[in-house]
Design goal:
about 250 residues, alpha/beta, Rossmann fold, 10 helices, about 45% helix, globular
């Protein structure tokens, strides 16, 4: 599905009243492609799934001239919700996409019924150099397929735009991320791959404690992109969470 300058993939039945779409939000410099394994499993369970490439990234790279900041990305996503008559529905995010998701849920709470934050980054108070070091440490723990996909996406988005997005995200982590989390009222599940070197267990539990209704869970054998390396486990967790079942 496309609209001017803003690409998104669709899986499962089209959204309609009474069956809202589940939106999956990628991390910094990437596209929605690494969410495809999870999207297909969610769609197989009957969900309507929308996987955008955020403005400035992947196939939406030409949508903007400069890298948007986190708040601008959240507002652009909210406009997409309205354009497609989405929401309120579940919102699933990974890594720096969790900052975008938190901003969306805080600014536009009527659009989000449930929030799933997978490997939330960036952690406030951690320097950019340390954050980058954590990313490098995580790489050997991820599947080779993800590494090749990510390398291609980073090249498409471009190093300058990735660097600008990283600066925006660090500023948001320092100034707004925790504030936005405190404003989230949607039930929230914080998922962390047990081998994640980017989002620490302490930080994941803090995120769950900052929102009004949150809990944290680890997925054994997964790292930062748990939705890619363990899509079946993720789909099961999301299904139980959005259905209100204990997980």
């Amino acid at each position: 599905m496309t609209d001017p300058g803003f690409f998104a993939r669709g899986y499962g039945p089209p959204p309609r009243e009474g069956r809202p779409a589940m939106v999956l939000v990628h991390g910094l410099g990437l596209s929605g492609r690494y969410f495809v394994p999870l999207a297909r499993r969610l769609a197989a369970g009957g969900a309507s799934v929308v996987v955008p490439d955020l403005p400035g990234n992947g196939r939406s790279r030409a949508a903007v001239r400069r890298a948007p900041d986190v708040g601008q990305l959240a507002d652009a996503l909210a406009r997409r919700y309205r354009r497609l008559s989405l929401g309120p529905g579940p919102l699933v995010a990974n890594s720096v996409g969790c900052q975008v998701a938190a901003a969306l849920a805080a600014r536009h709470p009527h659009l989000v019924s449930h929030l799933v934050l997978t490997g939330p980054a960036l952690e406030p108070g951690v320097s950019g150099r340390r954050q980058f070091g954590r990313l490098v440490a995580d790489a050997p723990r991820e599947p080779l397929g993800l590494l090749s996909l990510a390398a291609f996406d980073y090249l498409v988005t471009g190093p300058l735009r990735c660097a600008a997005s990283f600066r925006h995200s660090l500023r948001d982590a320092a100034e707004s991320f925790e504030v936005n989390l405190e404003r989230v009222r949607a039930p929230t599940l914080v998922v962390r791959g047990a081998g994640d070197t980017i989002a620490s267990g302490t930080w994941a539990r803090r995120v769950a404690g900052l929102v009004a209704d949150g809990r944290a869970v680890d997925i054994p054998g997964a790292a930062h992109a748990a939705h890619y390396s363990a899509p079946d486990a993720m789909a099961e967790l999301i299904g139980k969470f959005t259905a209100g079942e204990p997980g």
